[in-house]
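Reader question, answered in our methods column.
A reader sent in the components of a multi-part assembly and asked whether the whole thing could be modeled at once rather than chain by chain. We filled in our standard form and ran it. Here is what they sent:
COMPLEX SIZE: two components
ENTRIES:
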Amino acid sequence: MWHINGFFLVLKAEIVRAFIIMRRYWFASIISIIMGYATLITIVYGLMHTPSSVKEMAEKAINGILGFLIGVFAFGIVGLFSQGLQGMARTGELEQVCLSPFGLVTNFLARSFVAALGNIVSSAIMLILVAKTVAENLHVAPVETLVLLSLTYINLIGFGFMVGGLVLVFKQTGQMAVIVRFAMIGLAIFATEKISQWPMFARWVAHALPVTDAAICLKYTIIQGQQVIKYNELGEPIVRALEPVLDSAGKPILDALGNPVMNRIYETTFSSVFTHESFFFLILSCIIWTAIGIASFRFMENWSRDKGTLGAY
Amino acid sequence: MNTEYAVELEHINKVYHTRHFFYRDEETGRRRWYTKKTVHAAVDVNFGIRPGEIFGLLGPNGAGKTSCVKMISGLVRPTSGNVYVEGLHVEKKRLQVLRRIGVVLEGTRTVIWPLTPLENLNYFGNLRGIRGKVLKERARQLLDFIGLKDKMNVQVRRLSRGQRQKLAICIALIADPSVILLDEPTTGLDVQSSHAIREKIREMTRAFNKSMLVTTHDMFVAQDLCDRIGIIDKGKLIACKTTPELLDVFSDKTFEFRLDRIPEPSKFLSIQGVQSVALDENGEGPVLVVSVEQEETIRSAALYEIISLLRDDGYLLKSVSMRQQTLENVFLRLTESTTPSVKPIVSAENQLERRV
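And here is the structure of the entire assembly that came back:
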């Protein structure tokens, strides 16, 4: 009970602090939003200049953006435990947090929750704006999205705690953490169901990292609307309609024989994300990372107190 | 465990090991594949702090003062030995101990610069489990008490170093702890700020009956502020006494006789109990400096005889005074003695019983 109360008190303190700093440094806050928007627009244009239909281009763009946002989410949470923790040691804040009677784990849970909340709100706004720009519909499934975001958060927290534990003892792990964080952005962007076709080793590495299955599930829910293609008795996808592929000027693209190139729109059926293979990997990875993360963080915290490195940097 | 103490360190040892790969020795320039260094930050340290007492931990840089503070607050784990705060074992009941202590670590790194003092207190109050009206009232009371009421809405980055240090003390007090640990609270402060902080520390201890541990290497601060002082050097507690007792340790009972003309020093050496005689002269005239024995009866007789001799020889005795021992002298004499034959000067009441 003490730790639950502590979590909410620290949560309140962190939210108030974040708001005060955001309000006080409003110019920096606006600049960061503009920078974020500019980055997303660059990615959108990059993705939309690949030769395919308007529909496909829009889907690819949204897929990329969503992956990017999930990657940034992971980047931020893991960053809080790596560079963030290192910075706290440098300013002396880490020792102050360690002096809190709620313990380091409760404090970091609350801190990361605030960071995640801010990230999710800003990412949602960005995603909606970009989707409007490319005229792509997003599927809002509140329960599924909330469950998936929560699981993603728990997963990342577990992983973050493990990284944070290492930073507590070995402060100079920053560059290694940066590589891992960028790898997570890359995985989040390119993670699709096609992962099952990857070589065995790459597939397991991808599943082991906490962001891959989370990205697959979120993309499946938000972009595909939990729709899977239907197949006939012969195992072929059932085509619902054919649509001409248009060029950037809006004219149909013709093949060598002068016929318009057609895009197949397949028959789909609803299949809940909770029955998706990646959802089970996500839950598994949540359990494993949370257990490993918190256990290793506690171990490293004690080791760090033995070595006296809490205030060192 | 001694229940008399609010804080107790019992046979504390702390050893830091550092391991280096591909190491280059900075002194010799030699390169090694691997080297391991050992630093003893605390060697069998024993002391206790009573409720309502200001205990000073004095020592040169790197002596182990901060390590002791961090071991009491649970930021560092002792290699062996036990630390108790209000009867609670720091390692076993760390989170409960943290509810009872307030810590100001060295420097002003403990405050958040973009926030105001009031916001800092609200933030750290929440982190320590205080909320609502209680927190608001306490924050304002503390700022008023420490003299930052008119600066409570100014960002910390715009405050002076002394004001930031005062704020750090307020943060340590926000949860109303019974034990306060102050690591070098006056380092780098100007005379006024240092004086103001010392006054507040004294006031706090007396008014709220707090137990206070102050580490410093400023002799004046220690002598002025502390009820009891422990001197630590190379991790060893080499002295632990009340401030007057400590000042008395190396007191050689030297007396100064200010006269109208220069006397003959050798005449006084034959007096029983006189150990040494010297002459000193300054603008106010010659001074006969006589060291006498510690034993009171012999000392008294020797002083009477000196005065009688001076009267018989027709000297005008302008004044007689005892040369004051300073903590700085005591400290230097204790810390200069690096030979292992120097016995720790710890009074019986400070010597804790070994637990079986």
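What stands out: Chain B has eleven helices and 15 strands. Residues 252-322 of chain B form a domain with the Alpha-Beta Plaits fold (CATH 3.30.70).
Send us your own complexes using the same form.
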